[in-house]
Amino acid sequence: MIYLNGKLMPIEEACIPVLDRGFIFGDGVYEVIPVYSRRPFRLTSHLLRLQHSLDGIHLKNPHCDKEWHDLIAQVIAGNDGDDQYLYLHITRGAAKRDHAFPHNVTPTVLIMSTPLLPPARELLVKGASAITASDNRWIRCDIKAISLLPNVLLRQMAVDVGAVETILLRDGFLTEGAASNIFLVKDSVLLAPPKSHLMLPGITYDVVLELAAANNVLHEVREISEDELRTAEEIMLTSSTKEIMAITRLDNKIVGDGEPGPLFTRLYQCYQHYKATVMRGELSC
Ligand code: PDD
């Protein structure tokens, strides 16, 4: 079951007009929210980031937080599986084709659910491979825009060579992955690039930094050079759908000793423990 513009319905019955600006211009924003044991994870942070994205494209939020909570609860209840991930898409709505914003148009609001499956065991045990590419996206990557063509092309580059992610470099510095944030380990210190307009402020990124602080993992948030990426002891990616995953090959070269490293293993365990606590309802989502 999906939610579209005020109604819950089977996805096969959902229709969007061809003149929807999401289709015509990619004029909209989205969010991805993991749901564990039917509880949306970090919902407040996701709704705050959604507001930031909407502000970034000058689109009024069509719902208050309470309405979002209710709609999200309805979609979760309407779908099988205790673990799901939700996509919220909001576009500027359907209007005569013109680049300039239309007046008095109702935004299109879509919420859909997909079963959330744990990553393949092999990826967790052996780690994944990634490639690098030049970050050729726009410079408002902090907006979670639905116009994702550069990200699509960049991630396909990885898929074409059997890798899981493309790690992006802009002007000699690490920004993020095509669909994830990137951390690395240098001299046993966890390093993360600082949030800026050049990367999406990941919710999982925040969780990992909070867990590092709470578990006495030495960490630093600062600019990371290409050379530091290429000589890292460990590399990891984070995202709502992949959680935290070790990258053990970069551009066909082994990272560290070629296996998921000690900091990854520690943070992975902390993440699972934290998630379990939230799922038991002992901590707020
Ligand atoms: N993508 N950077 C980019 C470009 C992303 O697309 C994503 C997530 C992230 C990680 O953000 P978070 O931890 O909040 O999921 C960083 C999602 C999963 C997607 O678009 O499907």
From TrEMBL:
Looking up InterPro entries in the UniProt record yields: Aminotrans_IV, Aminotransferase-like, BCAT-like_C, BCAT-like_N, Class-IV_PLP-Dep_Aminotrnsfr
An example GO BP is: carboxylic acid biosynthetic process
Q: Does the keyword Translocase apply?
A: no
Q: Does the keyword DNA repair apply?
A: no
Q: Which domain of life is it from?
A: Bacteria
> What GO annotations for molecular function exist for this entry?
catalytic activity
Sorted alphabetically, the keyword list is: Pyridoxal phosphate
Required cofactors, per record? pyridoxal 5'-phosphate
The similarity annotation says:
Belongs to the class-IV pyridoxal-phosphate-dependent aminotransferase family.
Q: What is this protein called?
A: D-alanine transaminase
Native organism:
Nitrosomonas cryotolerans ATCC 49181
